[in-house]
Amino acid sequence: MYSEEAEEKKERIQAREKEQEDLAMSLGGTRDLVEKYRREKHRARLKGIGDRRLKRHLRKGEKEREQASRTAARMELLRQEVVGGLEAEGMEQTRRFRQEEIAAAVPVATAAQYFNLCLDTFGPYSVDYSRNGRCLLLGGRKGHVAVVDWRSKKLTCEFHVHETLRDVQFLHNEMMFAAAQKRYLHVYDSTGMELHCLKQHLLINSLCFLPYHFLLVSASERGSLHYLDTSTGQLVAEHKVRLGPLRCIAQNPHNAAVHLGHVNGTVSLWTPNIKTAQVKMLCHRGPVMSVAIDKEGWSMVTAGMDALVKVWDVRTFKPLHSYRSPRPALALDVSQRGLLAASCGRLVQVWRGGLRGRSEAPYLQHSLSGDGSSLQFVPFEDCLGVGHSSGVSSLIVPGAGEPNFDALELNPFESKKQRREGEVKQLLEKIPAELITLDADDISKVEQG
Q1: What pLDDT is attached to residue 29?
Q2: Does residue 131 carry a pLDDT above 90?
Q3: Residues whose CB is less than 8 angstroms from the CB of residue 374 and which lie 6 or more positions away in sequence, other chains included
Q4: 139 - beta bridge partners?
Q5: Strands, DSSP E only, in 298-426?
Q6: What is the DSSP letter of 227?
Q7: Nearest to 242 by CA among 270, 212, 208
Q8: Which H or E element spans position 144?
Q9: How far is CA 325 from the centre of its chain?
C-alpha cells in the first residue's frame, strides 16, 4: 500500500514538472536558452555519497538551479530591447565614421552622450562610472575632483585637493568614492566631504572595488596590495608583492580575483586569503601597461610597452591572439557586450568581436585632443568615457552596452528610496573575503572521503 502511494506521488510530481517544462518551452524558453542560463553544465555526482541528508540536500539544490534556468529562459519574452551597431555599405569602413556623423544619425537622447570637456589645466584625468552607469567621477592628476550626473550634465560636487591625485574609484554606489592622493588614501561622500584618511595605505597608484565583498583593493608604489572592508573599516589583508611598483590593476567579476601587471612583463593573480600569488603569467617582453577582464571573467586583455595587445584565456592561462597597436596602450576596457577599447596615445581604438576571435580592423577609431590616460565603458549605454591630458571625452560606441538590465541588481533609473533599500540588501548579502578563490565553484563541491 505504501509503495503504491509513493509511486502515485512520484508520478504526479513528474507530471507537474513535465507540464512546467512544456509551458516554459511554449512561452519561448527553448532548450538553447535553457542551456544558456544553466550555470552548471554537468550534474552533481551523488553515487559515492553515503549521507542521505546531504544527498537529498544536493538533489534539491540541483532541482532549484534547473528551475531557475528554465524561469530565466521563459523571461526572454520580456527582453524586448535589441543590440545596435554600425553597418558599413559597399566600400565603407566603420572605423572611418567620425563621431559627428554618428551623433547626427542616432536618436537625440543618444546624440547628447557625445561631448568633450576641455579641462587642460589639471589633467591628465582618470574616469570612473558608478555601477549603474548614472554618475561620472573625474580625477585630475593635479588635484581636481568632480562628480557629475552625466546624463543630465548636472554637477553633484567639485573640489580641489591641492596635491597629486593618482586614481579615483566609486565604492558600492555613487554616494561614496575613494581618491588615491599624493601620500594617503582618502574617502569622500557625494557632497565632497572627507570621511576618512587611511594612513595605512601609502603611495597608492591604482584602485578597484569588489562590490559583492565590499572590498576596496589598492596597489601601491612600494609594491604592496591592500584589501580594505568598507562596511567595517577593517584591513582584511596586506600582501607584499615584491615585483616592483604596482601601477595597473583589474578585478575578475567571476571569482573576484585581482590581476596585477608588473614591470617585468608578468601578470599575477591574487586573493586576500593567500599571501602569495595564485598564478604568475609571462605576458609581455616589457612592462605591462594595462589589464582588463571581460564581464564573464573568461578572457583577460593585457597591453605592454612592446605595443602589443594580447587576449588570454583565463581558464587555461594561454594566449588566444594579439593586436599590434600604433603606440603602447595605456588603458584598456571591455564593454558588457564584449567590445574591446584601447587608448594608444591620442588615438582610441575599439574592436568588435576581438575577444572570441581576431578582428582584421578596428570597429571604431577616434583622435583625442590630448594623450589618453584612462577609459571606461558606461554600463547599459552605448558610450565610452575617455580621460586625457586635455580633459574628458564621451564617445558614442553603438552596440557596446547591455540593452536589458535587471532592476533588482543594478537600476540606472533608481530612486532615492530604491538606492537605500538596495544598499541594505547588498550589506545583507555580502560575501566574506575568505570565500574568494580562483575556482568559484569550489564552495559548492563536496569533499569525497
Answers
A1: 46
A2: yes
A3: 124, 125, 126, 127, 330, 331, 343, 386, 387
A4: 126, 145
A5: 299-304, 308-313, 318-324, 331-334, 340-344, 347-351, 364-367, 372-377, 383-388, 391-396
A6: E
A7: 270
A8: strand 144-149
A9: 23
Q: At what angle do helices 52-74 and 2-26 cross, to 10 degrees?
A: 30
Please give the Cα distance from 441 to 343 (Å, whole number): 35
Q: How far apart are CA 297 and CA 53, in angstroms?
A: 34
pLDDT band at 155 (very low <50, low <70, confident <90, very high): very high
What global pTM score does this model have?
0.84
pLDDT value at 279 more than 70: yes
Q: Following DSSP, what letter does each residue of 244-291 receive, concatenated?
A: S---EEEE-TTT--EEEE-TTSEEEEE-TT-SS-SEEEE--SS-EEEE
**Residue matched to cell numbers 601578470:** 267
Note whether 142 and 164 are within 8 A (CB).
Answer: yes
- Name every residue whose Cβ is closer than 8 Å to that of residue 238 and which is 6 or more positions away in sequence: 200, 224, 225, 226, 227
Rounded to whole angstroms, the Cα distance separating 155 from 149 reads 6
What digits encode the pLDDT tens for the residues 101-127? 999 988 898 899 999 999 989 989 999
How distant is the alpha carbon of residue 114 from its chain centre?
22
Q: Span 43-65, mean pLDDT?
A: 74
Place of cell 596585477: 260
Comparing CA positions, the residue from 182, 160, 165, 179 lying closest to residue 124 is: 165
With residue 118 as reference, give the H or E element that holds it.
strand 115-118
Put the strands of the sheet holding 364-367 in their side by side order.
331-334, 340-344, 347-351, 364-367
Residue pair 337/353 in contact by the 8 Å Cβ criterion: no
Rounded-to-integer distance, Cα 398 and Cα 364, Å = 10
